[in-house]
Amino acid sequence: MKSLILLSLIFFSITIFSQDRVIKNSGDTLNCKVTEIGADQIKYYYSNNDKLIFGIDKALVKRIEFSTGEVIKIEANSFDNPEYYIDQNRNVIKFNFLSPMNSNLEFIYERSLKPGRSWETSLGIIGLGFDPADHNPRGAYGKFAYKFIRKPDFYMQRMHYAHILKGAYIAPEFAVRYTSYDTYIYRYNWNTYSHKERIQDFSMAVTLKFGKQWVIDDGFIVDLFLGVGYGFTTNSGDNYDVVSYGFIVAPEVPITFTSGLRIGWAF
Question: Is there a contact between 64 and 37 (Cβ–Cβ < 8 Å)?
């Protein structure tokens, strides 16, 4: 009798330890034998009935622990799988296409960190290009932004970004600017007169940009955006001129605006 009990315990132990474990996202565990890991489903059976095959949606499974000791983690969604983008360019050099119309040239470098995330930095040289306001400006500005690329509102198996740098995005951005420019000082007394004066201006801004970036043939880039945020300028008195080199700071309230149309090339 003791031998029979001992054999039963040994058989039970072997059965338990030879089973696979399917760990669900909820924390529940299925002790079973996995027969197939498909694109959408994981198929398995229980040891007491190997003729009845069950299936579970892969999206509900966190990992599979096989009786051999091997562990397979199930991908939550294919958007985050870097293998889909392994052959795509991750760096971009861009140029603000309309910036020369406002007496400045802006160049941008962007780098993808991982699917859905990238950072970019910008350098603007003030004083190059057309000067419609006759300000004769000189100076520079710099920007840094961290981009969050939007995912769809719903998810289907094996969906992923068409390109790792492509899509609608939200980007917090920090910007700083120093410039000097000519302005006219108006005086009102018995007669109206004015004289030209050189103004020094230092400005900072923290904005939230909303944009969309297109990637054509893994090379040509088009980036269109608008942004709004908070900022300040050292030149906010009666002689303040609204200048828009890189961004605009409102004259009486700490609100900033920015926009742009950028083109570039990925490499």
Answer: yes
pLDDT tens digits, 188-199: 555 555 667 888
Spell out where 85-191 has E strands: 91-96, 104-114, 117-126, 138-149, 167-188
- Domains in the chain, CATH or no CATH each: 20-74 (2.30.30), 82-266 (2.40.160)
Strand, coil or helix: what is 195?
Answer: strand
Q: What is the rounded distance in angstroms from the CA atom of residue 164 to the CA atom of residue 116?
A: 7
Residue 151 neighbours by CB under 8 Å, 6+ apart: 79, 116
* Residues 71-108: b if buried by 16+ CB within 10 A, e if exposed: eeebeeebbeeeebbeebbbebebbbbebeebbbebbb
Summarised one tens digit per residue, pLDDT across range 130-187 is 988 888 999 999 999 999 999 877 666 667 788 999 999 999 999 999 999 988 766 6
